[in-house]
Amino acid sequence: MRNLSSDKLLTIEEKNARFNPPVKTTPSVSKPIFNEKKGSIAFENPKNNLNDFKRQPLLTHALSGVSPCLAKADVNGDGLDDVFVGGASGQASGMFTQNKNGTFSQKPQPAFEKDKQSEDAEALFFDANGDKNPDLYVCSGGYGNFAPNDPALQDRLYLNDGKGNFTKNANALPVHLVSTSCARAADVNGDGALDLFVGGRVSVGRYPESPLSILLINNGKGQFSDQTKQLAPALSTLGMITDAVFHDLNQDGKIELIIVGEFMPISVFGFENNVLTDVTTRFFDKKYSGLWQKIMLEDLNDDGRMDLVIGNLGLNSPIKASEKQPAELFFKDFDDNGAVDPILCFYNQGRPFPYVTRDELLDQISMLRGRFPDYKTYAEATFETIFTKEERKGATRLEANCLKTMLFFERFKPKNLKKSRSQLPFKLPQFLLFRPSTSIKMVKKTCF
Question: Domain-by-domain residue ranges, the chain?
Fold first, then answer.
């Protein structure tokens, strides 16, 4: 059988088989589509040898190795874009200034060398102190090689002197020892200074507990205070956030905060009575829960409105999920040994089964050995039969009902602000739905 299309069920009957002897052909010599070319930025990220599953055996996937990250800005005022490359834990970050011929030169930064034990997960250039120079915020991420409340998990703010020399302002940020994934800047309180939303990615050693996300308010001089409790209490334990953007979705002159994450619904927060409140149902027709990776804002159809492309895990995965049969992630310290035990389940032939194998589960939760003495007894086990009703009590449930990357066109009707759904889903080509979309860029109106 040749040239079969994907994502279809084929029924084959032996009586209809025909034998066609294979035709011998001489394979043609193919030419490579791409040729290797050395980049002009001399920075190589070290190989990640961490095994996160030794840290937490029932993880659904590895969480370390989040570097390198990239950010660009004109840091020295010469009109050319310069590039920051975030380093892995144990590797200093690099600042590369662009030359007029398009090459890059690394500019020494002693402040980066001092902070090289942190893992750079995300970087953001913005004017923190109002001097018109792009300063640098770096998110400290990672998982397997950090302890809870590790000092290396503290995010960092580096101030730019206008010539591309960066100095860390150690007192600019409140203590926040969380593995973070993103930082987004906007003037939240209308005082003219850029404030920050910082998304928590994961609770180190305790996946999938919700890490702490924070809203940082700028005093205009580059000093930030945590005002999450006062202005955005719902954000603090929202979930395992992977990305966020600020944007005025309904064109009312007020910004909204769009947030996505792992085993999280697409969420929208807007200001109601000076407090960031969940207003998702005002913009989306239903709950889109997924293992979301990235958000891109772009006017894809040239109507003057920004549309949303949101990258997801993709369909080419053992995990299956739909609205009627969602993937479910239950977690609790089931055996009271102080460790969080995540149990991922998804449907197969109409019933939800655990993704974890019998050996993996029993190695971690030994009290279950008597219940499943062999593989046959475990083959029919579900979450409800693995654990008793009493053992399941207190377990938290997360779900995902969508695994494909989504495109939402903005179709807001300003006359009906409270009731209109502004984001309309659009079916993307099949080849874009299979792969994890961890980064999305627009090149000549084509998503990559």
Answer: 53-314+404-447, 327-400
Q: DSSP per residue over 149-208, as a string?
A: T-GGGB-EEEEE-SSS-EEE-TTSS---BSEEEEEEEE-SSSSSS-EEEEEEEE-TTSTT
H or E element: which one contains 363?
helix 358-364
Burial call 300-329: b when 16+ CB within 10 Å, e when fewer: beeeeebbbbbbbbbbebebebeeeebbbb
Identify which of 425, 422, 426, 424 has the alpha carbon closest to the alpha carbon of residue 282.
422
CA distance 70 to 84: 6
Supply the DSSP symbol for 37.
-
Q: How confident is the model at residue 302 (pLDDT cuts 50, 70, 90)?
A: confident
Instruction: Supply angle C-alpha 293, 344, 240, rounded to 5.
Output: 35
- Cα atoms found within 13 Å of the Cα of residue 312, Cβ hemisphere only: 29
Q: CA-CA distance, 213 to 128, in Å (whole number)?
A: 19
Output the pLDDT for position 428: 61
* Per-residue model confidence as pLDDT tens digits over 170-198: 999 999 999 999 999 999 999 999 999 99
Confidence of residue 41 (pLDDT cuts 50, 70, 90): confident
Quote the pLDDT of residue 416.
Answer: 47
| Confidence (pLDDT) at 436 | 74
Task: Provide the CB-side half-sphere exposure for 3 (13 A, CA).
Answer: 0
Query: What 3-state class would DSSP assign to 64?
Result: coil
pTM (2 decimals)?
Answer: 0.88
Straight-line distance from the first to the last Cα atom of the chain, in angstroms, rounded to the nearest whole number: 32
- For residue 173, CA distances in Å to 4, 44, 196, 396, 445 come to 56, 29, 11, 32, 38
Per CATH, domain 53-314+404-447 is 1.20.1740: no
Nearest to 414 by CA among 275, 277, 282, 288: 282
Separation of alpha carbons 106 and 42, rounded Å: 8
